[in-house]
Amino acid sequence: MAFFDKVLIANRGEIAIRVMRACRELGIETVAIYSEPDKNALHVKYADEAFCVGEAHPRKSYLNMERIMEVVQQSGSEAIHPGYGFLAENSQFAKLCEDTGVKFIGPPSKAMEVMGSKIGSKKMMRDAGVPVLEGTEGGVKNVDEARDIAAKIGYPVITKASAGGGGIGMQIVHSEDELEEAIEKAMRIASSAFGDATVFIEKYLEKPRHIEVQVLADEHGDAVHLFERECSIQRRYQKLVEEAPCPIMTEELRESITQSALTVAKTVGYTNAGTVEFLYADGKHYFMEMNTRLQVEHTITEMITGVDLVKQQLAIAAGEPLRLKQKDITIRGHAIECRVNAEDPMNDFNADPGKILRYRSPGGPGIRVDSGVHMGYTIPAQYDSMVSKLCAYGSDRNEAIQRMRRAIYEYVILGVKTTLPLHYAIMNNRAFIRGDTHTHFLQEQDILNKLKGYMEDEESRMQTLAESFRQGREIAAITAAVDVYVRSNQPKG
Ligand code: MV4
After folding, report:
1. CATH 3.40.50.300 for the 6-105 domain, yes or no
2. Which residues are tagged catalytic?
């Protein structure tokens, strides 16, 4: 079953290739789009046809709706897969597709629009009986109202931009005397980032876990979930490590959080693949937002369920009923994803784009590497700095961790600095091994500073080696992580 004859992939890098792989297996022809600096990128070579859509800047190319629609017409594509980022959560683009009669492989524009408003979606889900955090009913109208509500729910509270995302406009408020200033600051930031100063207030959780549920919904009213992912390990609101299933999941929590996710999907009339995000603390989960797209970390759900999520997206978009039944979807084993970014550990993990001089990706049992790069490829500075997604599967969590460590050992990337040493340190961190992760894990474990310190100073590395006998394995592992770093910075041969 081909679902479509020809699909345009409105994205670049590993996700464009991921989507094209599903198309190729199904016999669907693929159309790539690319910006000028991407003309030699892998996704262009992989596709059956490719069209240049403009200059490097995303606005001129990957976000250029008019030009992309032209390519749809020229190529005779029946559908558009947006991947993630770029146009993936742009409800206006989805609407444009609906109006032009080209199938947008994602939810209806209406569902995207609802989820684009944090206040609107939170209210809708609370009314549907999904747990949400206590806070202001809508946007903050005045400081007096905010003061009353904050006093009622108790400090600390947090401000968030309604148009938000990515932590923009978030201000943690510890006491009443900080409230007014925090609200004003949040509104200024929200206004300049989104052109919408609307902010709301809710109870602040100190160290929540970020747990998200993958859902699939067809266009005939059927929906299933594919269990959860734990995505707590992040930095500057960018996820670094994700795993599935969540290491602390219980039968009861899984039942309630997956049912909440399905209620969310049904309440907005969702179709296609989506992810419902929750914060979890002290045995309770709270709806945060829904990501109306295929996510970066969909791979680990594929590994533990055996379901190809992109094929499911294509089938659903073609109007097929879900063939998957909830009772047939089960978890087998454990999977972990490490995002390998071109970032410099010595320089606050700032992006380190450039040419990949040597490249050899790991393989063997349980390893999946989704990447859009190759030896000699130059990672451009204009886009995100992801090199690959390194995913490890094991029959249990411990085996997945062991395989991830082994894969990092095998991985050779020379020419750009990467997050691999950081991942090696995380995979050897005792709190991580216990499954004891939360959204402030990196700060609390001080892993970045430890890494940096040991990289800078040869003497402290020697001391560390000696200390490792006394302090146990974690410090030794940090040293080993530095060795991964040193090895990757000595191009030879
Ligand atoms: C929170 C929170 C604690 N309490 N809301 C960060 C990004 C944005 N989408 C929501 N975020 C948070 N909201 C309340 N009421 C803590 C975070 C948060 C976080 C959430 C998910 C993943 C990583 C995070 C890291 C720091 C803070």
Report:
1. no
2. 293
